[in-house]
Each structure stands twice: as structure tokens, then as C-alpha cells.
Amino acid sequence: MSFLSVDLQHKTYPNGVCTLRDLRFQAGKGEFIALVGPSGTGKSTLLNLIAGLDAGFEGRIDYPADTTLSFMFQEPRLLPWLNVEDNIRLVLDAPSRQADTQRCARMDALLEQLGLADFRASFPGQLSGGMKRRAALVRAFVTQPGLLLMDEPFQSLDEPTAQGLRQLLLQWWGETRPTVLFVTHSLNEALLLADRILFLSARPAHIILDYPVPLVRPRPLATSQLQPVRNELLQQHPELLSGIPTFYQPACP
Ligand SMILES: Nc1ncnc2c1ncn2[C@@H]1O[C@H](COP(=O)(O)OP(=O)(O)OP(=O)(O)O)[C@@H](O)[C@H]1O
Questions:
Q1: Measuring CA to CA, how many Å separate 11 from each of 5, 24, 60, 224, 252?
Q2: ipTM greater than 0.95
Q3: Atom number of ligand 1 nearest to Cα 37
Q4: What residue stretches are annotated with the ABC transporter domain (predicted)?
Q5: d(CA 44, ligand 1 centre) in Å
Q6: Is the separation of the CB atoms in 218 and 56 below 8 Å?
Q7: 248 CA distance to ligand 1 centroid (A)?
Q8: Residues 6+ apart with CB under 8 A from 214
């Protein structure tokens, strides 16, 4: 049964840029969906619409009203005047059915898992780029969201760090099973993480292929093991290669 339903006729910005047109899909509860498409086609725009940050579109987006939603943006977006712990507590202060002690214990455990326990009193300006991303990841997960939107969350991280975070993400997802929409430019990252990959066209974006990933979990982490699936996909759908040169790059080992 569908948990999230997206039925967009179009999204046109006031300056006339039409970024999404006739874009429709559904996501099941607990499904992990990757969104892959050319730069500038409208992936971030789509997440903004789903998050309710932009209501200026034609169409419908539906998911249960009581859903806890988390959004991990392209940039960590930590408030510079708050330390790590207070940046995370910002989302914990929202009303919740969970007891406060339970949520604080979860924050402590996540900080520990991500190696940030000793930096909870540090301010964003005192953290490396990777540490800020890890703090943003704790903030996205601490509320145990039912719908998790992630916009290229591991871009510009060194590969071992990114790979470690992907594994943690999969572990957390397995434990609480939010529905995930994960934007990436890396086909390998999408193959490693997702149940389904939605390939988007160039702008105005629509879905050109809804691809169920034919790999059982746990997935192989090495690119060499993903390669046969990737090769078969690209042989069957050579159209995916046009306009998306990043597909050639093994961005995830
Ligand atoms: N506020 C805005 N006003 C006008 N045009 C915008 C606005 N925000 C985005 N756009 C345009 O909408 C299109 C889609 O942008 P968006 O950021 O959603 O793309 P994207 O697929 O996420 O790109 P990338 O992969 O490079 O992050 C782009 O052409 C962009 O210039």
C-alpha cells in the first residue's frame, strides 16, 4: 500500500523556469527510494515540495498527516550560534509522543556511534565539514522519522567516511524503517542503498525509469560486486547515459 503519493502536474518558479512536469510516483511504507538525474533538473525542488517548504505547484502530494518528517539538506545547515547538542535538541524540542528521556538517550547513542560524543559542546565553526554532516545526520535521525528526505547527504566527503555513513544509514533504516527519498548523482550509491531507483529526465523533470534494484540485502559494498548489475542496467537502458556523464564515474567503491 502506498505511504507517499506524488502526482505533480508541474512546478514552475515565478521567473518562468518549469522544473518538474508530469512527475508521478508512489512509495511504500519503509521503502528506500533513490532519485537520480542530471544536475539542475529539479531533485532538490521535488524534496522541498514534499517537505511542504514550497506550496507553489500544481498537483498533489499525500502522506499521513501525523508523519514525522526529517530533511537532511545538501548543506548541513547547523545554526552557528548553537553547539552540536543544542542544534540537535532544536528538533527534540518539538512535541512528541516519545518520552524525553528516550529521545535524549537516542541522541546520546547516535552521537556516540558517529564519533561526536566528545564534540557535543563544540560550535559548528569548530567542526570539520565531515563532522558537520555527521551532526546533521544525527539531527535527521534522532526523531525516528517516518519520512526521511536526504539531498546528496554524503557528497564531498572522503570515500571511507561516506562509506561508513552509508553503512550506518542502512543499519538505522533497518532498525526503524522510515520511508527514505535519497537524492544522489552516484549510480553505485543508489544501487548500494535503495530498493528502487527513480531516474529523472532533464528539466522539466519526469520519471524516465522506475527501477527495482535486483540485489538482496545486505548488499555488497565493493564497486566490483555492484558492477554486473550496473552494466546490465546500462546495457538495457542506454538512454540513461545521455546527459548524465557522472554515471560513468565509480563514485562509490
Ligand atoms: N528559487 C528558485 N527560483 C527560480 N529557479 C529556481 C529556484 N530554485 C531552483 N531553481 C531552478 O530550478 C531548477 C532545478 O533546481 P534544483 O536545485 O531543484 O535542481 P537539482 O536537480 O537538485 O540540481 P543539483 O543536482 O545540481 O543539486 C534549476 O534550473 C534551478 O536554476
A1: 16, 12, 11, 39, 32
A2: yes
A3: 21
A4: 4-227
A5: 7
A6: no
A7: 23
A8: 229
Q: Sign of the CA dihedral 58, 63, 69, 73?
A: negative
Q: What is the mean pLDDT of residues 187-212?
A: 95
- Cα–ligand 1 centroid distance for 15 (angstroms): 12
The closest of 46, 62, 64 to 54, measured between CA atoms, is 46
150 φ/ψ angles, rounded to the nearest 5 degrees: -130, 120
**CA–CA separation, 101 and 77 (whole Å):** 26
| DSSP assignments along 139-189, one per residue | HHHTT--SEEEEESTTTTS-HHHHHHHHHHHHHHHHHH--EEEEE-S-HHH
Q: Which three cell numbers stand for residue 52?
A: 511542504
Q: Report the alpha-carbon distance of residue 182 to residue 134 in Å, rounded.
A: 16
The pTM assigned to this predicted structure is: 0.92
> Which residue type is seen at 152?
E
Range list for CATH 3.40.50.300 in the chain: 2-67+146-248
- Average pLDDT value over all residues in the chain: 90
Query: What is the CATH topology of the domain spanning 2-67+146-248?
Result: Rossmann fold (3.40.50)
Length of the chain: 253
